[in-house]
Amino acid sequence: MNIWIFRTSREAAHAAAAAMAAQLARKPASVLGLPTGRTSLAIYEELVRLYHVGEADFSTAHTFNIDEFLKVKSGDRQSYCAFMQKHLFRRVNLPADHVHFLNGDAGDPEAECARFEDDLAAHGGMDLLLLGIGSNAHIGFNEPGRRLRARTHRARLAIATRRANVSLFRGRLDKVPREALTMGIATMLEARMIVLVATGRSKARAVASMLTGEISTAAPASLLQLHPRVEVILDSAAAEKLPQPRFGAEP
Ligand code: GLP
User: Fold this and answer.
1) Residue 71 to residue 73: CA distance in whole angstroms
2) What gap in Å lies between CA 126 and CA 62, rounded to an integer?
3) What is the reported pLDDT for 202?
4) Distance of CA 78 from the midpoint of ligand 1 (Å)
5) Sheet containing 179-182: order of strands
6) How far is the CA of 35 from the centre of ligand 1 (A)?
7) Residue 26 pLDDT more than 80?
8) How confident is the model at residue 245 (pLDDT cuts 50, 70, 90)?
């Protein structure tokens, strides 16, 4: 894993956006795996800027989002789908039919997960997977536990994760779904390149367990150590529990 440490979260976000724009320049018809969450906001903001200045072209790209709440309709304000529409998709030149999402409201969630896997495979898999990390080292909605399911599946959310998502539900924890659909870690590990971004002190322990701990289902992000090409982009606060923080350039 290559580790890049920036002084501020803004610099880290810009480095991640630059890595994505570079991927799109290398291969315009790239398949991108995308997350939601606070960390991704500054990255999408910068990608929109890069699009406006002609440095990021989404016209032939395809996107696959990595997770969605169960029993939440894609049009609902709280859905991850609505988040992506608002912060990225509606603001760049990505064709609407190039957006691929798990339907959290599907009648048969297991069949929906299989459909998503088939759709991703039919598009040749992900060229670049952008990830955030939860404070408990979850990726997507793959929560710490004794066992993990490899492929896209229905997952139960940890209380810490539900709390972290509470702002989407007007601060009402009881309204945050208890389950979600998520890309599995084996699916994530098939991406040709992974860019994981973590910013802020609240992620420092998770980052340390991902990078310096044993590979364990207790820290799902540690499984990324098995991937040959992972760029980990951090700000100094997220890096503060690493043995030797060092400042780096853009990947
Ligand atoms: C959420 C999402 C993840 C995201 C993570 C971090 O629950 N399911 O895909 O990467 O938690 O979110 P944030 O960037 O808001 O800290």
Assistant:
1) 6
2) 9
3) 97
4) 14
5) 67-69, 179-182, 153-156
6) 7
7) yes
8) low
pLDDT grade, residue 251 (50/70/90)?
very low
Could you report the per-residue pLDDT of 165-191, keeping only the tens digit for each?
999 999 999 999 999 999 999 999 999
In the predicted model, what is the mean pLDDT of residues 204-212? 97
Length of the chain: 251
- Chain mean position to CA 3: 17
CA distance 230 to 3: 9
Q: What is the 3-state secondary structure (H, E, C) of 135-186?
A: CCCCECCECCCCCCCCCCEEEECCHHHHHHCHHHHCCCHHHCCCEEEECCHH
Pocket, ligand 1, Cβ cutoff 6 A: 35-39, 66-67, 132, 134, 140-141, 161, 164-165
Task: Note the pLDDT of residue 243.
Answer: 86
**Residue whose token pair is 């072209």:** 57
Catalytic, out of 46, 127, 136, 231: 136
pLDDT at residue 86 is higher than 90: yes
The set of residues, in sequence order, having a beta carbon less than 8 Å from that of 156 and lying 6+ positions away, is: 143, 178, 179
DSSP 104: T
